[in-house]
Design goal:
3 domains; single chain; 20% helix; 8-stranded mixed beta sheet; OB fold (Dihydrolipoamide Acetyltransferase, E2P); Rossmann fold; alpha/beta
Amino acid sequence: MSAAEGTPGTLDWTDRLLELDVGPVAHGGHCVGRHEGRVVFVRHALPGERVRAVVTEDGGGSFCRADAVGVLEASPDRVEPPCPWAGPGGCGGCDWQHATPRAQRELKAAVVAEQLARLAGIEREVTVEELPGGYLGWRTRMRMAVTDDGRPGLRAHRSHEVLPVGDCPIAAPGALAPVLERSWTPTAEVEIVRDDDGEVHAAELFEGARRPELGDGTAHERAAGRSWDLPAEAFWQVHPHAADAVVDAVLDGVGDLEPGACVWDLYGGAGLITAPLAERVGAEGRVVLVESDPAATAAAGESLADLPAVQVVRGRVEKVLGGLPGPPAVIVADPPRKGLGRRLAGELAGRGAARIVLVACDPAALARDVAALAEHGYELDLLRAFDAFPMTHHVECVATLLAR
């Protein structure tokens, strides 16, 4: 009996060519197929297609991973990818270049809905909203790897292999040219920012050190009706229209605030959301921004100096929570990709806020946090989702939960 015919745990279909009927989309930029009783997570395919796929990874369990290398029956949503590196064996940065923009949004909406249903027990119709500017030339922040001979490139999917690309169609215009025209330290990474003024800032990351190489290191951005000067390495939305979209959605979720109210803005970065919140509560209110990144908190202190309601607290949310002023009327949280986690969600729920507004770029993390907050009496109310990362599987969500 061959390994491919053995029991689970001994299987290895790597490099095997399969013919698959492609099923629904799954979280992570692939669709679900089945073959001989096993699940196959297949990239470069679309629901409803019939494809030939090569198995790229197989751990011997109940599933394996594959790339569609031939399309036998195509979806009407299939298009020619605009980038030659977007296919099997190519760059891992984009997942859906082979789908129409409308289909991409529908795929992401299906993923958000599926994660909420599976992880939080919530059935909710989801719409992913398109942002202005089209589906190319939007990425203002990115990181490139460097080959052994000093050329910057992008990594292949789920691989350390560096592909020395000559351009990237989703990169903001002008962002890559000054980076690609020079050599960098082999095996380093290059952090690239093109700010709202069109200036490119690039720093080399190598052996724990960060060495600025291009630009003056201060990114000039505009959002929420204000101008922001912040260190290029500080967090900021990568899509030029995402910051305003997220702020608007958060303010919708927060609703009316009484003058003098207290609001917490957790993981607040440089204060993008803090500023409009402070304007709502007025000089007698208080908006507490909590952020662990010293560069971001320094920028927030300078950018928000004209707003007397703002208090900037530097530290990890879970460490400083007990000392924050309150009680908060509303809590806004934009945690890292992994989400709040069950323990912190419970601690936030215990503060008695009437509303908790979550900003999340990972549907699974969002669903887990919604489920955790539901255990403490919070119910999902508003949900907005934005296609802030076109061509990729990522989606930005803003969820409002109300205390029951």
